[in-house]
């Protein structure tokens, strides 16, 4: 995702925290789900639910290996916030590279699974990609289909419109009669 989009949406980003209700444990393996927000793509961290952190003993800063669906391994750091919620933990370090290489977009859901008694100290991630945009069929006379997408005008279009308006305004200004 281009950095410009992150800068523009920076003030409107959500915190990117996962909630404790998304934390589960089964047969000694604990997991949580996190829906990727604009915040997680713009900034270099992802919140870890407090319940998940305490269940797995993530009290201090540490590194953990995270395995993605393609079998690649990433060294992510776990740290805690410095504000009022000191019990809030988050992934940082190589998080942004992990997100970019795995093509994460807003709306994707990542499930992080951790088995503290496992053979290797690794957390596995599965990624459920956001549904693609719907395709609308135009009338049968045209015989085409178009993807619903952002209808914001391009910068070239806006430049052309502003240039047209400038010359139109100049033409309205009375010019002195030279006779």
From TrEMBL:
It is found in: Nucleus. CDD domains: B3_DNA. Pfam families: B3. Keywords: DNA-binding, Nucleus, Repeat, Transcription, Transcription regulation. The keyword Disulfide bond does not apply. SMART domains: B3. InterPro entries: B3_DNA-bd, DNA-bd_pseudobarrel_sf, REM_fam. One of its GO terms (cellular component) is nucleus. This is TF-B3 domain-containing protein.
């Amino acid at each position: 995702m281009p950095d410009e989009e992150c800068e523009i949406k920076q003030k409107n980003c959500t915190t990117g925290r996962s909630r404790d209700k998304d934390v589960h444990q089964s047969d000694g393996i604990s997991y949580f789900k996190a829906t990727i927000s604009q915040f997680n793509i713009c900034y270099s961290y992802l919140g870890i639910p407090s319940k998940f952190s305490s269940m797995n003993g993530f009290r201090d800063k540490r590194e953990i290996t995270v395995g993605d669906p393609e079998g690649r391994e990433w060294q992510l750091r776990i740290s805690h916030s410095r504000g009022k919620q000191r019990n809030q933990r988050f992934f940082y370090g190589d998080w942004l590279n992990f997100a970019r290489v795995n093509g994460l977009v807003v709306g994707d859901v990542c499930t992080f699974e951790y088995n503290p008694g496992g053979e290797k100290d690794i957390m596995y991630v599965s990624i459920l990609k956001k549904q693609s945009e719907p395709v609308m069929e135009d009338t049968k006379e045209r015989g085409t289909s178009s993807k619903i997408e952002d209808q914001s005008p391009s910068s070239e279009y806006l430049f052309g419109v502003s240039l047209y308006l400038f010359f139109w305004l100049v033409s309205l200004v009375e010019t002195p009669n030279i006779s």
